[in-house]
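Predict structure. Chain length: 208.
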Amino acid sequence: MLIIGIAGGSGSGKSTFVKRIMENVESDEYSIMPQDNYYKDHSHLPMDVRVQQNFDHPNAIAFNLLIEQVKLLKQGRAIEMPTYSHITCTRNKETIPIKPCKILIIEGIMVLAKDDLVDLLDMKFFVDADNDDRFIRCVKRDIEERGRTFESVVSRYYETVKPMYNQFIEPSKQKADLIIPHGGENKVAIDLISSKIRLELIENKTTI
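Prediction complete.
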């Protein structure tokens, strides 16, 4: 199993980058583990308190569960990946079954910020983007997909998103094998990385 970690700030284009890479690799024998699925459950808190949580701090993520499940997949065992609702700020009852596969992609803002997780990665990428571009994408996403108000998104950006990016996420790019500017729009980087992944699969004869 080839395990790939893809990190980058909120709104940097990580999901688009993953999509473009897998389109180029032309393999359907892969699974994606979004770090967002591993946010800790806040169902025990009132809704007005849930939305005030700092979702951009490493402590907001159940890294122990994520790492445990990655190790199980490496051992050839299937897992039930949790799912999370950003609207209710709670973990859903539904889970997603994932079987061992040739390529496992772990994607999220903190993927390179936790050393125990980094140690499990075969390839590490950091998707970089202009801060203003990331901010605009975050505003659009949080309003359209998560039901936030413009005022709440802006407030959260300056109170937690920006300072946490500077403290935890931006420094984690030093652990990346490659820093990718412009994310899913960087065709040269996508072609190079896709070729490298195909070569790794052939050379290592990666099997399920």
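Summary: The first strand starts at residue 2 and ends at 7.
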